[in-house]
Amino acid sequence: MSAEGLERAGEGPDPEDPITVTIGATVPTGFEHSAAEEVGEKIGTDVRISKDRGRIYFKTTHVNLPQIHRLRSVDNLFVVVEEFSDYCFKDTKEETLEDFQKLAAKLPWKWPLEVWKINNSLKKKRSRQKIIQENGSEDSCSETLVKREDSHTEAEGSHTKSKQSSEISSDLDEKKDDVQDVKDGKKMISAETASASGNGDVVEGGKDCEGPEAEGSSKLLKFRVTCNRAGDKHNFTSNDAARDFGGAVQDLFQWKPDMTRFDIEVLLNIHNNEVVVGIALTEESLHRRNITHFGPTTLRSTLAYGMLRLCNPQISDVIVDPMCGSGAIPLEGALEWPHSFYMAGDNNGMAVNRTGNNINHIHKKRQSKEGTAWGLPIDTVQWDLCNLPMKTGSVDIIITDMPFGKRMGSKKKNWDLYPSCLKEMGRVCRPGSGKAVLLTQDKKCFAKAVSKMGYLWRKSHTVWVNVGGLHAAVYLLKRTGLRTLEQRKSFW
To answer: Residue by residue, what is the 3-state secondary structure of the chain?
Structure first.
């Protein structure tokens, strides 16, 4: 359990030593194993997949925070305060909620709060570096920061906060001096950490607590508690748990509750008998990283990464998304597997324009960071999916988000579309070694189409995923060795 990593007993680790905590991450449902593999490769730590689908947990130190924020498969991150694998809920609602009220004072808050502060100092430093880069001077940076703080104070609602959060999250992609930044940030806030009791719990901080926007001030933190609950045997609601546990957190730290413009978000995740208390490290999902021009059914970047990882791109592979929409899949591939070449096509001219705009945005973003940047290995084209302007057997991987027949297309049209597109994909895909990774919610129609095209494709693997509340599937198909003699019709 995470309490072991946080060292509840004794004085705990020296402030200059790396702080070891458990990090939790939400990932696209169905791609938990892919996310675990990525964490193992990039962070070098073992990963535990939660019983609650869509979550993984791993132990690491605060030094790895920049690399953790650059993970491509995770949506949201949080640091675990305490985890109860078999929490004993009481028989009545009143007794259960009373236990939640008592729970807050028993938790080891010290090191998770320390990591949260380091995370915020890192985000502030990245934000300042970006403003200096855009304005060209420290003075301009100071003026911009003052204006933003004034705007944040006067604005109603959370619009300004969301805008700043987006800028801060994008800055976490920078790789320069990451480890040193974390160390500097830790030294900067170590003296500001709330005083701890002998067992490692943070005692009431009151006005001594600092918010991420008011370094060196005595401003109270604003917070909210979010309860995510799954299970049908609970005698309380999510709102009940959040209200009573949040009240206890407020009494403990004297923080100010604010549901919209909060500085810190405390998470209470309940899945059947499993209870996890955490502190959020991301203000918005990390999947909002590549796309600025959205279409009606834009795919999340984290889901696109999982699909790409499933097909395992190799150097010099030609990868085609014949129904690219906003270009989420080829953009994710070009950034993570840049040694392959990507073709993004669609029959809709507006979709092709959106993809081009998203590519230009990424290119300009890279140029502003690096001064000079090579173009992305990606091209766009408008075409007919069932008559692709490509040579027979010239493509290594086909990967796309097919129309579900809900917001895009119709289930009736899918009965003609799916067999036709599988046939054309089989023509352009390399016999014997080619692959296709296809996402669809119209599983019945797809199964019939694959059965009909069995001489071209064989189903290798299926991943069941949740896409916007819809139960969908990602199919990995392998191209058979049969060489098609049929040539395509003239595209022109």
So the answer is: CHHHHHCCCCCCCCCCCCCEEEEEEECCCCCHHHHHHHHHHHCCCCEEECCCCCEEEEEEEHHHHHHHHCCCCCCEEEEEEEEECCCCCCCCHHHHHHHHHHHHHHCCCHHHHHHHHHHHHHHHHHHHHHHHHHHCCHHHHHHHHHHHHHHHHHCCCCHHHHHHHHHHHHHCCCCCCHHHHHHHHHHHHHCCCCCECCCCCECCCHHHCCCCCCCCCCCCCEEEEEEEEECCCCCCCHHHHHHHHHHHHHHHHCCEECCCCCCEEEEEEEECCEEEEEEECCCCCCCCCCCCCCCCCCCCHHHHHHHHHHHCCCCCCEEEECCCCCCHHHHHHHHHCCCCEEEEEECCHHHHHHHHHHHHHHHHHHHHHHCCCCCCCEEEEECECCECCCCCCCECEEEEECCCCCCCCCHHHHHHHHHHHHHHHHHHECCCCCEEEEEECCHHHHHHHHHHCCCCEEEEEEEEEEECCEEEEEEEEEECCCCCCCCCCCCC
